[in-house]
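Lab notebook, page 48
Experiment: co-folding of the full assembly
Goal: obtain a model of how the components sit together before planning crosslinking
Operator: M.T.
Materials (sequences as entered):
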Amino acid sequence: MNEIMSGLINVLSIWNLLALAVGMILGLFVGSMPGLSATMAIAILLPLTFGMDPATGITMLTSLYMGAMYGGSILAILVRTPGTPAAAATVMDGYKMTERGQAGKALGISLISSLVGGIVSGIVLLTVAPLLGKLALSIGAVELFAIAVLGLTIIASLAAGSVIKGLLAGSMGLLISFIGMDPITGTPRFTFGSIYLFDGISFVIALIGLFSIPQALKLVEKDKEVIKASKIKDKMLPSWQEIKALKGTLTRSSVIGVFTGLIPGTGGDTASWFSYNEAKRFSKQKNKFGTGHTEGLAAPEAANNAVVGGALIPTITLGVPGSSTTAVLLGGLMIHGIMPGPTLMTEHAEVTYTLLWAVLFSSIFLFVLGLLYTRLAVGVTKIPGKVLAPIIVLLCVIGTFAVNNSMVDVFIMFAFGIVGYFIDKLNIPVAPLVVGMILGMMLDTSLHQSLLIGDGSWLIFLQNPISAILLFIALISIFQSTPLFDKFIQLYNKRLRQDSK
Amino acid sequence: MLKVGLLKKSVGLFFLALILVLAACGNTEETSNAEGSNEESSDGGGEYPTKPIEVLIGFDPGGGSDQLAQLTQPYLKDYLGGSFANEYKPGASGGIAWTSIAQQTENDGYTITITPSPQVVTNYLINSELQYTLDDFDPIANVVTDPAVIVVPSDSEFDTYEDFAKYLEENPKGLNVSHSGVGGDDFFSLLRWKRQTDLDVEMVPYDGDGPSWQAAAGGDVDASFNNLGVVFSQIKEGNLKALALMSEERNEMLPDVPTLKELGVDVVAGSSRGYSAPKGIPEEAKQKLYEAFEKLSEDEEFKEQLKEVALPLDVKVGEEYADYLKQEEEVSSEIWEEVKHEYE
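Observation: model returned without errors.
Model output:
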């Protein structure tokens, strides 16, 4: 209890509050730029924090992480170019709202949802982190495989219109994720002997190409049309009524965010799709998803900010990074001479609890500074398409190069851009492709590991209770999206009516 | 219209300011380090180093190689009277950075790289596509060696290495053992141990040291071949039990854990990290670098800092480091030839 209070007092010092503000502004900025990610910004800023007190340095970096999670959504909503992979799901309903002339409202809902997600994850961190930490360890290869399978069933609900096209895009995504060295045998696959493909296609790079380049081309194409978004007449902050209507979605998505963050190896990108899918599953207006529905926007936004706290749980209780961003953060702690591991909660309690409070306070900074930053960023939509398009392309090139300092990556990004443009023209949805890419690697590795552990028997997936339940839910999800399900419901309803007669 | 123009301008200015802030942050280290070198060069004429030394790191920031860079450079900078600029070029398990050292960078002593072994040699032994070998390098110095260690879950039925070995004698291939990935240091430690003892286990690869010990701690596998520096805090906290260490001597931080050598298994293995330069750098630069590392090995403050992160100091300078890498190459290539067919 003492540590919790001293952490609170620490956070409230002038320097730490300043660190929160600086981190937040930087986070909002790098988040909103395609290609610049929180992971990268933290890596760049690490040397700068060496001169600071460890607690102050870490506070700044955490605030940056939180800011980037929201920042990624700004351009995703305004011009359909997600700034971070975690904001890809935001495009689905966010950009549709902008097209309808509700850009202001969309940004407001996204900000409120991020705030809720951040606060929920902050509270979870402060209260039950040590309990949940152990849970992260118990998720092994078998459970991961089941999670990946369940995740793939999301494709069904994302295949707006044509199931065939959705499945096609999903399989393309899976195939792309198999490029590179086989994680189990080390054999290079689909690399054509090029060492630049050994590590596979970086997800961020593919995403920049798939979303931003086609959007730039489209902006040029319809330059003459007046973009409706340029007139933001509606109020940014949603009314209390509107927020209350989203209560269920926000709570569910925050919980999904915390748990997805908790699982090592999954982060904001996975969480946002999961929560989008669940929001749709539980919604009364399923067919409105993908057309600019507020629930479809609030779900991924709450989830990707809730991930921050979730990902920090195994990080501080065990020294296991819950996402790639927290992995860099851990590296930073090591350089500060703090050994990541279970001792963080005991030996370095002061730093750790400052960090925990920082998560909570950064949500509040996010709200205030996010509101200001968003008002500025809205100016982007006032830039004519023929000016904005080259700027987007330029940002894509810089952002892509910065990921690995590699020109080859820039060419790969453009290749994805061209593919993205044409699959868009062919009305093939991009979302299933993205989901396939996120989950492909996880599916492949965990399947092979599970089979090695289970001596080659597929029964291992049913013997494990968690995986059996998840696979069962996946089965229901698949069934739900087939025409058979509707028939079944009709029959059931008929029965009911007959019975009541 | 005026208002729109103003807004646009302010947005532009805002972004510009942020970009400048970011750029400034990225460069801070470089500029602050460069101050030291100015004095040196002004009175020493053309003495090495007259400009920042670029360190090519073949892995992501925050990884083991980056950690070594960040730990050593504050000291090396003073001993060399120069400065460092780190460049990260991740890809192909370091292969992209090392290929560029071998083929592209100038051997003027102003570009060096971090070489973790055995990865730096096993990488090209396993992937024939990689176009570099040890002969393309002038090894400068090894700095740390993180010994390999066998760990089991805290609730494991095995309390000692003898229990573990006895069980495997009675049940060949009866246990699942995780390692950090095919071609990694733990993969080769495991193979070396298998060869020495004639025991067999089911080898389960994971993506790195972290996921590998987590699989053991979570009970997914029965044991993990890992590195002491990685799992030390987990052992201390009781999440894992250490059965045996693969170093020459016992470690002072874990005095109760025996080495494989004293148990009669002659395997000494681990993961080393040091610095290397492209072949044929100027003699003056080489000597200066050797000297800096010799001094580093004596630095009490540096030793203290390594202790905090549980990394054992193991400085081998010049020829000694080159011989060590050569030996690693021989052993690894022999082992790889034996098991190669299973991975093709």
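Interpretation: DSSP finds eleven helices and ten strands in chain B.
Next step: discuss with group before ordering constructs.
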